[in-house]
Amino acid sequence: MMHAYFSDDQLRHHGKTFIVAGEKKPIPEVPERADILRTAVSRLGLELRAPDDAGMAPIAAIHDEQYLDFLQTIYREWREAGGSELVIPNIHPFDRNGPYPRHHTGKAGFHLGDTSCPVLETTWHSAYASAQTAISAARHVRDKGAHAAYALCRPPGHHASGNIAGGFCYLNNSAIAAQELRAKYDRVAILDVDLHHGNGTQHIFYDRADVMTLSIHADPMDFYPFFWGHEVEVGENAGIGFNKNYPLPLGSGDAVFLEALDRAMAAIDDFGADAVVVALGLDASRDDPFGGLAVSPDGFSKIGEKIGTLTCPTVIVQEGGYVSSTLAENLYQFLSAFGVTNKNTTLSEGPK
Ligand SMILES: [Zn+2]
Known about the structure:
Helices cover 34% and strands 13% of the residues. It is of the alpha/beta class. A hairpin with a 2-residue loop joins β2 (17-20) and β3 (23-26).
Protein backbone atom coordinates (compact mmCIF):
# COMPACT_ATOMS: atom_id res chain seq x y z
CA MET A 1 0.00 0.00 0.00
CA MET A 2 1.01 3.58 -0.59
CA HIS A 3 2.87 5.16 2.32
CA ALA A 4 1.31 8.28 3.81
CA TYR A 5 3.04 10.67 6.20
CA PHE A 6 1.91 13.12 8.86
CA SER A 7 3.21 14.48 12.17
CA ASP A 8 1.07 15.75 15.05
CA ASP A 9 3.54 18.66 15.33
CA GLN A 10 1.86 19.98 12.19
CA LEU A 11 -1.27 20.72 14.23
CA ARG A 12 0.40 23.24 16.55
CA HIS A 13 0.30 26.25 14.21
CA HIS A 14 -3.03 28.05 14.12
CA GLY A 15 -2.90 31.45 12.41
CA LYS A 16 -6.28 32.50 13.88
CA THR A 17 -6.94 35.62 11.80
CA PHE A 18 -6.03 37.27 8.53
CA ILE A 19 -7.21 40.46 6.85
CA VAL A 20 -9.92 40.24 4.19
CA ALA A 21 -11.53 43.35 2.70
CA GLY A 22 -9.95 45.37 5.48
CA GLU A 23 -11.36 43.22 8.25
CA LYS A 24 -9.89 40.61 10.54
CA LYS A 25 -11.47 37.26 9.66
CA PRO A 26 -10.87 33.73 10.94
CA ILE A 27 -8.09 32.13 8.94
CA PRO A 28 -9.41 29.08 7.03
CA GLU A 29 -6.10 27.23 7.20
CA VAL A 30 -7.02 25.55 10.51
CA PRO A 31 -5.60 22.40 12.15
CA GLU A 32 -9.03 20.78 11.69
CA ARG A 33 -8.23 20.50 7.96
CA ALA A 34 -5.64 17.88 8.76
CA ASP A 35 -8.09 15.93 10.95
CA ILE A 36 -10.60 15.89 8.09
CA LEU A 37 -7.99 14.81 5.54
CA ARG A 38 -6.85 12.05 7.92
CA THR A 39 -10.33 10.51 7.83
CA ALA A 40 -10.00 10.08 4.06
CA VAL A 41 -6.57 8.50 4.46
CA SER A 42 -7.84 5.98 7.01
CA ARG A 43 -10.93 5.22 4.90
CA LEU A 44 -8.50 4.21 2.15
CA GLY A 45 -6.86 1.80 4.58
CA LEU A 46 -3.59 3.74 4.60
CA GLU A 47 -1.55 4.03 7.75
CA LEU A 48 -0.23 7.51 8.53
CA ARG A 49 3.43 7.31 9.41
CA ALA A 50 5.38 9.89 11.38
CA PRO A 51 8.13 11.41 9.21
CA ASP A 52 11.82 10.97 10.01
CA ASP A 53 13.72 14.09 11.01
CA ALA A 54 16.04 14.74 8.06
CA GLY A 55 17.29 17.98 9.62
CA MET A 56 17.70 21.37 7.99
CA ALA A 57 19.75 20.51 4.91
CA PRO A 58 16.82 19.58 2.61
CA ILE A 59 14.98 22.75 3.66
CA ALA A 60 18.06 24.94 3.26
CA ALA A 61 18.41 23.55 -0.28
CA ILE A 62 15.34 25.64 -1.16
CA HIS A 63 15.15 28.46 1.41
CA ASP A 64 17.61 31.23 2.33
CA GLU A 65 19.41 30.95 5.66
CA GLN A 66 18.29 34.49 6.60
CA TYR A 67 14.65 33.52 6.04
CA LEU A 68 14.97 30.30 8.03
CA ASP A 69 16.53 32.28 10.91
CA PHE A 70 13.68 34.79 10.68
CA LEU A 71 10.99 32.10 10.95
CA GLN A 72 12.66 30.69 14.06
CA THR A 73 13.39 33.93 15.88
CA ILE A 74 10.98 36.69 14.83
CA TYR A 75 8.18 35.72 17.19
CA ARG A 76 10.30 36.19 20.30
CA GLU A 77 11.89 39.36 18.94
CA TRP A 78 8.45 40.78 18.09
CA ARG A 79 6.97 39.91 21.49
CA GLU A 80 9.92 41.35 23.39
CA ALA A 81 9.37 44.60 21.49
CA GLY A 82 5.74 44.66 22.63
CA GLY A 83 4.14 43.16 19.52
CA SER A 84 0.94 41.07 19.57
CA GLU A 85 0.82 37.28 19.37
CA LEU A 86 0.62 37.48 15.56
CA VAL A 87 3.61 38.74 13.61
CA ILE A 88 2.00 40.66 10.72
CA PRO A 89 3.86 43.48 8.95
CA ASN A 90 2.53 46.90 8.01
CA ILE A 91 5.01 47.66 5.21
CA HIS A 92 6.57 45.73 2.33
CA PRO A 93 9.60 46.73 0.24
CA PHE A 94 9.29 47.68 -3.47
CA ASP A 95 12.11 45.21 -4.03
CA ARG A 96 14.48 43.33 -1.82
CA ASN A 97 17.86 44.50 -3.10
CA GLY A 98 18.60 47.00 -0.32
CA PRO A 99 20.13 46.45 3.12
CA TYR A 100 18.38 43.91 5.36
CA PRO A 101 16.54 45.76 8.15
CA ARG A 102 17.51 45.45 11.81
CA HIS A 103 14.00 46.27 13.09
CA HIS A 104 11.47 43.47 13.62
CA THR A 105 8.76 45.28 11.61
CA GLY A 106 11.17 45.69 8.71
CA LYS A 107 12.15 42.04 8.84
CA ALA A 108 8.48 41.02 8.93
CA GLY A 109 7.73 43.21 5.90
CA PHE A 110 10.73 41.77 4.10
CA HIS A 111 9.79 38.10 4.60
CA LEU A 112 5.97 38.06 4.87
CA GLY A 113 4.46 38.69 1.46
CA ASP A 114 0.90 39.32 2.62
CA THR A 115 -1.26 39.35 5.75
CA SER A 116 -2.30 35.71 5.51
CA CYS A 117 0.90 34.21 6.86
CA PRO A 118 1.18 35.44 10.45
CA VAL A 119 4.06 33.97 12.44
CA LEU A 120 3.07 32.60 15.85
CA GLU A 121 5.05 30.93 18.60
CA THR A 122 4.25 27.52 17.10
CA THR A 123 4.61 28.34 13.41
CA TRP A 124 8.16 27.14 12.93
CA HIS A 125 7.50 23.79 14.66
CA SER A 126 4.55 23.04 12.41
CA ALA A 127 6.14 24.31 9.19
CA TYR A 128 9.30 22.31 9.94
CA ALA A 129 7.25 19.16 10.62
CA SER A 130 5.21 19.73 7.45
CA ALA A 131 8.43 19.95 5.43
CA GLN A 132 9.74 16.76 7.07
CA THR A 133 6.52 15.01 6.04
CA ALA A 134 7.20 15.97 2.42
CA ILE A 135 10.85 14.90 2.70
CA SER A 136 9.94 11.48 4.11
CA ALA A 137 7.44 10.89 1.31
CA ALA A 138 10.00 11.95 -1.32
CA ARG A 139 12.71 9.74 0.18
CA HIS A 140 10.37 6.76 0.37
CA VAL A 141 9.85 7.05 -3.37
CA ARG A 142 13.47 7.96 -4.15
CA ASP A 143 15.25 5.46 -1.92
CA LYS A 144 12.79 2.60 -1.46
CA GLY A 145 11.56 2.26 -5.01
CA ALA A 146 7.93 2.95 -4.19
CA HIS A 147 5.82 4.16 -7.09
CA ALA A 148 4.09 6.83 -5.01
CA ALA A 149 3.71 8.33 -1.54
CA TYR A 150 1.35 10.89 0.02
CA ALA A 151 2.50 13.70 2.30
CA LEU A 152 -0.32 15.21 4.35
CA CYS A 153 1.41 18.58 4.55
CA ARG A 154 -0.11 21.31 6.66
CA PRO A 155 0.70 24.21 6.79
CA PRO A 156 0.78 24.16 2.97
CA GLY A 157 3.75 25.45 0.98
CA HIS A 158 3.25 26.48 -2.65
CA HIS A 159 2.92 30.24 -2.05
CA ALA A 160 6.28 30.39 -0.21
CA SER A 161 9.31 31.44 -2.26
CA GLY A 162 12.93 31.01 -1.21
CA ASN A 163 12.68 33.90 1.25
CA ILE A 164 9.06 35.06 1.37
CA ALA A 165 6.03 33.49 3.09
CA GLY A 166 2.54 34.06 1.70
CA GLY A 167 -0.97 32.63 1.52
CA PHE A 168 -0.80 30.44 4.68
CA CYS A 169 2.55 29.03 3.44
CA TYR A 170 5.98 29.22 5.10
CA LEU A 171 8.15 26.40 3.73
CA ASN A 172 7.58 25.19 0.18
CA ASN A 173 7.00 21.49 0.81
CA SER A 174 6.47 20.62 -2.87
CA ALA A 175 9.70 22.37 -3.89
CA ILE A 176 11.62 20.67 -1.08
CA ALA A 177 10.24 17.28 -2.20
CA ALA A 178 11.18 18.01 -5.83
CA GLN A 179 14.73 18.95 -4.85
CA GLU A 180 15.02 15.71 -2.84
CA LEU A 181 13.95 13.77 -5.94
CA ARG A 182 16.55 15.61 -8.03
CA ALA A 183 19.29 13.78 -6.10
CA LYS A 184 18.30 10.68 -8.10
CA TYR A 185 16.18 11.84 -11.03
CA ASP A 186 17.44 14.21 -13.75
CA ARG A 187 14.07 15.72 -14.65
CA VAL A 188 11.39 16.41 -12.09
CA ALA A 189 8.01 18.02 -12.79
CA ILE A 190 5.81 19.73 -10.20
CA LEU A 191 2.16 19.58 -11.23
CA ASP A 192 0.13 22.00 -9.10
CA VAL A 193 -3.65 21.48 -9.18
CA ASP A 194 -4.49 23.82 -6.29
CA LEU A 195 -7.18 26.47 -6.89
CA HIS A 196 -4.49 29.16 -6.47
CA HIS A 197 -1.43 29.64 -8.66
CA GLY A 198 1.71 28.12 -7.11
CA ASN A 199 3.61 31.39 -7.23
CA GLY A 200 6.25 30.39 -4.69
CA THR A 201 7.08 27.18 -6.53
CA GLN A 202 7.21 29.01 -9.87
CA HIS A 203 9.59 31.61 -8.42
CA ILE A 204 11.93 29.03 -6.91
CA PHE A 205 12.46 27.12 -10.17
CA TYR A 206 11.88 29.96 -12.65
CA ASP A 207 15.40 29.90 -14.12
CA ARG A 208 15.89 26.13 -14.01
CA ALA A 209 15.47 23.55 -16.77
CA ASP A 210 15.78 20.50 -14.51
CA VAL A 211 12.50 21.11 -12.66
CA MET A 212 9.43 21.88 -14.76
CA THR A 213 6.68 23.71 -12.89
CA LEU A 214 3.07 23.50 -14.10
CA SER A 215 0.08 25.10 -12.39
CA ILE A 216 -3.66 24.87 -13.12
CA HIS A 217 -5.58 27.55 -11.22
CA ALA A 218 -8.22 30.27 -11.19
CA ASP A 219 -7.22 33.18 -13.46
CA PRO A 220 -5.02 35.54 -11.42
CA MET A 221 -6.56 38.54 -13.21
CA ASP A 222 -9.50 37.91 -10.87
CA PHE A 223 -8.08 35.82 -8.06
CA TYR A 224 -5.28 35.47 -5.49
CA PRO A 225 -2.27 35.63 -5.91
CA PHE A 226 -3.09 38.27 -8.60
CA PHE A 227 0.47 39.06 -9.72
CA TRP A 228 1.57 35.66 -10.99
CA GLY A 229 0.09 32.72 -12.83
CA HIS A 230 -0.40 34.05 -16.36
CA GLU A 231 0.32 32.00 -19.47
CA VAL A 232 3.05 34.43 -20.58
CA GLU A 233 5.17 33.44 -17.57
CA VAL A 234 7.29 30.77 -19.23
CA GLY A 235 10.50 30.90 -17.19
CA GLU A 236 13.71 32.87 -17.61
CA ASN A 237 17.27 32.18 -18.81
CA ALA A 238 17.90 28.41 -18.78
CA GLY A 239 14.37 27.95 -17.45
CA ILE A 240 12.59 29.34 -20.51
CA GLY A 241 9.95 26.84 -21.57
CA PHE A 242 9.99 25.00 -18.25
CA ASN A 243 7.22 26.94 -16.48
CA LYS A 244 3.64 26.39 -17.62
CA ASN A 245 0.54 28.16 -16.37
CA TYR A 246 -3.05 27.15 -17.11
CA PRO A 247 -5.31 29.93 -15.78
CA LEU A 248 -9.00 29.00 -15.84
CA PRO A 249 -12.05 31.31 -15.85
CA LEU A 250 -13.64 31.69 -12.42
CA GLY A 251 -16.34 29.10 -11.82
CA SER A 252 -14.89 26.54 -14.25
CA GLY A 253 -16.01 22.97 -13.55
CA ASP A 254 -14.76 19.47 -14.27
CA ALA A 255 -14.63 19.60 -18.06
CA VAL A 256 -12.54 22.78 -18.28
CA PHE A 257 -10.22 21.63 -15.50
CA LEU A 258 -9.69 18.19 -17.05
CA GLU A 259 -8.95 19.70 -20.46
CA ALA A 260 -6.21 21.85 -18.90
CA LEU A 261 -4.92 18.79 -17.06
CA ASP A 262 -4.63 16.94 -20.40
CA ARG A 263 -2.46 19.77 -21.73
CA ALA A 264 -0.31 19.76 -18.58
CA MET A 265 0.10 15.97 -18.73
CA ALA A 266 1.18 16.23 -22.37
CA ALA A 267 3.78 18.88 -21.38
CA ILE A 268 5.11 16.57 -18.64
CA ASP A 269 5.38 13.82 -21.22
CA ASP A 270 7.22 16.09 -23.69
CA PHE A 271 9.57 17.16 -20.89
CA GLY A 272 10.37 13.52 -20.22
CA ALA A 273 9.92 13.75 -16.46
CA ASP A 274 11.67 11.02 -14.48
CA ALA A 275 9.65 11.84 -11.36
CA VAL A 276 6.66 14.02 -10.52
CA VAL A 277 5.49 15.96 -7.48
CA VAL A 278 1.74 16.59 -7.40
CA ALA A 279 0.96 19.77 -5.45
CA LEU A 280 -2.48 18.54 -4.46
CA GLY A 281 -4.72 21.42 -3.50
CA LEU A 282 -8.36 20.45 -3.12
CA ASP A 283 -9.70 24.02 -3.01
CA ALA A 284 -10.76 23.91 -6.67
CA SER A 285 -13.77 22.07 -5.22
CA ARG A 286 -17.21 23.53 -5.92
CA ASP A 287 -17.82 23.27 -2.16
CA ASP A 288 -14.64 25.03 -1.03
CA PRO A 289 -15.23 28.28 0.87
CA PHE A 290 -12.94 30.13 -1.58
CA GLY A 291 -15.41 29.42 -4.37
CA GLY A 292 -13.03 30.09 -7.26
CA LEU A 293 -13.62 26.95 -9.33
CA ALA A 294 -16.29 24.24 -9.32
CA VAL A 295 -14.69 20.79 -9.47
CA SER A 296 -16.98 17.99 -8.23
CA PRO A 297 -15.97 14.93 -6.20
CA ASP A 298 -16.26 12.95 -9.44
CA GLY A 299 -13.97 15.52 -11.03
CA PHE A 300 -11.32 14.86 -8.36
CA SER A 301 -11.69 11.16 -9.11
CA LYS A 302 -11.02 11.84 -12.80
CA ILE A 303 -8.06 14.11 -11.92
CA GLY A 304 -6.62 11.31 -9.76
CA GLU A 305 -7.21 8.75 -12.48
CA LYS A 306 -5.43 10.86 -15.13
CA ILE A 307 -2.47 11.63 -12.89
CA GLY A 308 -2.42 7.94 -11.92
CA THR A 309 -1.52 7.06 -15.51
CA LEU A 310 1.96 8.52 -14.93
CA THR A 311 4.39 5.65 -14.88
CA CYS A 312 7.20 7.59 -13.24
CA PRO A 313 7.61 7.83 -9.43
CA THR A 314 5.15 10.32 -7.94
CA VAL A 315 5.06 12.20 -4.65
CA ILE A 316 1.70 13.68 -3.71
CA VAL A 317 2.06 16.73 -1.46
CA GLN A 318 -1.03 18.22 0.16
CA GLU A 319 -1.46 21.95 -0.50
CA GLY A 320 -4.76 23.85 0.04
CA GLY A 321 -8.35 22.68 0.44
CA TYR A 322 -10.47 24.12 3.20
CA VAL A 323 -13.21 22.91 5.50
CA SER A 324 -16.33 21.96 3.53
CA SER A 325 -18.81 19.11 3.32
CA THR A 326 -16.69 17.35 0.66
CA LEU A 327 -13.08 18.02 1.73
CA ALA A 328 -12.49 14.43 2.91
CA GLU A 329 -14.48 13.02 -0.01
CA ASN A 330 -12.38 14.93 -2.55
CA LEU A 331 -9.12 13.56 -1.15
CA TYR A 332 -10.63 10.08 -1.00
CA GLN A 333 -11.78 10.29 -4.61
CA PHE A 334 -8.42 11.59 -5.82
CA LEU A 335 -6.30 9.02 -4.02
CA SER A 336 -8.52 6.02 -4.69
CA ALA A 337 -8.66 6.82 -8.42
CA PHE A 338 -4.89 7.52 -8.47
CA GLY A 339 -4.39 4.07 -6.95
CA VAL A 340 -3.14 3.41 -3.45
CA THR A 341 -1.96 -0.15 -3.97
CA ASN A 342 1.65 -0.71 -4.96
CA LYS A 343 1.99 -0.33 -8.71
CA ASN A 344 5.55 -1.58 -8.99
CA THR A 345 4.41 -4.97 -10.19
CA THR A 346 2.25 -3.53 -12.96
CA LEU A 347 4.66 -0.90 -14.29
CA SER A 348 5.73 -3.12 -17.16
CA GLU A 349 2.16 -3.10 -18.42
CA GLY A 350 2.41 0.63 -19.06
CA PRO A 351 -0.31 3.20 -18.59
CA LYS A 352 -3.72 1.82 -17.74
ZN1 LIG B 1 -5.12 27.20 -2.64
